[in-house]
Write a structure and sequence with these properties.
Blueprint (H helix, E strand, L loop, with lengths): L6 H14 L6 H6 L1 H7 L3 E2 L5 H10 L9 H10 L7 E7 L2 E10 H5 L5 E4 L10 E2 L4 H14 L4 E8 L3 H12 L5 E12 L4 H24 L5 E6 L2 H16 L2 H5 L7 H16 L3 E8 L2 E11 L2 E9 L8 H14 L6 E3 L15 E11 L5 H32 L1
Parallel strand pairs: 4-6, 11-12
Antiparallel strand pairs: 1-2, 2-3, 3-4, 3-5, 6-13, 7-12, 7-13, 8-9, 9-10, 10-11
Helix pairs in contact: 5-12, 7-8, 9-13, 10-12
Length: about 400
């Protein structure tokens, strides 16, 4: 039987949020007492975490997440508007890191003044925490214990792989404590099985007729200059290629809507810093398709362990009739399938993405999971209800926007 939340219980919860979640760890705190805060605080500023220990944990993580690599997350936290000032929960053993989860308060994430922590959004659509592959359950238990120590009553994991190794470790800990998580929403996301041969994979996905049409478009594209697929890997090459990518993205529909990365100074600074730093450690490459000297399309790809992450794509709309985004993705598919270090690729795309879904036919479940931090806690019902109401309002607003756009096309 569901426990009803009384007015007085809800009032207590809101007051607790004001007192326990109101003061977040700051960079000044870490500077003033670095040794003591490293050892004792359940919630640290991101920049207070030792980057070498973070990288070591990422190398040992039970499940890869390119968007929680330190060079990416530190760049996001430094300048990306709306994503700066995050904190981290950490799990430790003998001075090293066993687990790490960037977080913000529920009030910061969604303007809901209740005592809960939420996965900090790293600009990419994946928030799977980093857990040591040997001691994943111990790491997960420590992270949840640290969340409790902040005064939080619930932990919202946004956009995590529901059947991934990290969530399996988290669920094992929750079962042992008699706690049942709640999946708030989920969808299937496109991914690539890079262990397959690219030619057969593309044949199965697109069929002979579609591939023939794409070859015809590529031959027509070649009339504008030799078609070349370029891969930028070194720091200098990546920093040059990111400029091309940013120009292409801003020249398309994202530029018209004002959402291209280069249109906001903080976002442009973040992506330049992140891609340059990750290139130095082999965790980033930028792929570009050219017709002669002209860039037709470009994409940013992160690499973590044996998985690639297709972050964003930009296309030159002058060549729209040649399907530049699809042509780039076909080349990227061949590139990843030929790389023995890559076993899979996450599209990190929205559900039903019209470009990537027909090409990358693998699917995995991704969703938002609400984790009570105490068994039978009525405060969690209040958090759950608030999140459901917020999502319903967003769905209505999104439907209205789509309806307006459809009407303008008529």
């Amino acid at each position: 039987m569901r426990h009803a939340v009384s007015h007085w219980e809800l009032k207590d919860v809101v007051e607790l949020a004001d007192t326990t979640m109101g003061r977040r760890a700051s960079a000044n705190d870490a500077t003033a007492m670095p040794a003591r805060r490293e050892a004792t605080s359940p919630l640290l500023p991101i920049e207070a975490v030792d980057a070498s220990q973070w990288r070591s944990l990422a190398d040992r993580a039970i499940e890869p997440n390119g968007y929680y690599l330190p060079d990416w997350e530190l760049a996001v936290n430094a300048s990306a508007p709306g994503r700066t000032g995050a904190s981290v929960l950490v799990a430790r053993n003998d001075g090293g890191l066993l687990g790490l989860m960037p977080v913000v308060s529920l009030a910061r994430a969604f303007k809901i003044p209740l005592p809960a922590l939420v996965s900090a959004h790293p600009y990419g659509t994946l928030c799977t925490p980093l857990l040591d592959h040997v001691r994943a359950e111990e790491a997960a238990a420590q992270l949840m214990r640290a969340a409790r120590e902040t005064g939080a009553r619930a932990l919202l994991l946004r956009e995590v792989a529901l059947d991934g190794a990290a969530m399996k470790a988290v669920n094992a800990v929750l079962r042992g404590e008699g706690i049942r998580p709640r999946i708030l929403r989920w969808h299937l996301r496109a991914c690539l099985n890079a262990k397959r041969g690219a030619d057969q994979l593309l044949q199965d996905a697109l069929g002979a007729k579609k591939l023939k049409e794409l070859r015809r478009q590529r031959h027509r594209l070649a009339e504008h200059g030799d078609v070349a697929f370029e891969i930028a890997r070194s720091r200098d090459d990546v920093l040059t290629a990111i400029g091309t990518f940013l120009q292409l993205e801003a020249g398309g529909w994202k530029g018209r809507r004002g959402t291209a990365l280069m249109q906001v100074e903080g976002n442009a600074a973040f992506i330049r810093r992140a891609t340059g730093a990750l290139a130095e450690t082999g965790h980033c490459e930028i792929v570009t398709l050219r017709a002669g000297d002209v860039a037709v399309s470009s994409g940013i790809v992160l690499r973590h362990q044996s998985r690639a992450f297709f972050f964003k794509i930009g296309v030159n709309e002058r060549f729209a009739k040649f399907s530049p985004g699809v042509q780039l993705t076909l080349e990227l598919t061949r590139h990843l399938c030929a790389d023995p270090k890559i076993a899979s690729a996450d599209s990190t795309a929205s559900p039903d993405h019209p470009m990537i879904n027909p090409i990358w036919r693998g699917r995995f479940a991704i969703g938002d999971v609400l984790i009570p931090l105490r068994s039978q806690d009525p405060a969690v019902a209040a958090v759950h209800a608030a999140l459901v109401m917020r999502q319903s309002a967003l769905d209505v607003a999104r439907w209205g926007v789509h309806a307006i756009r459809r009407s303008r096309k008529r």
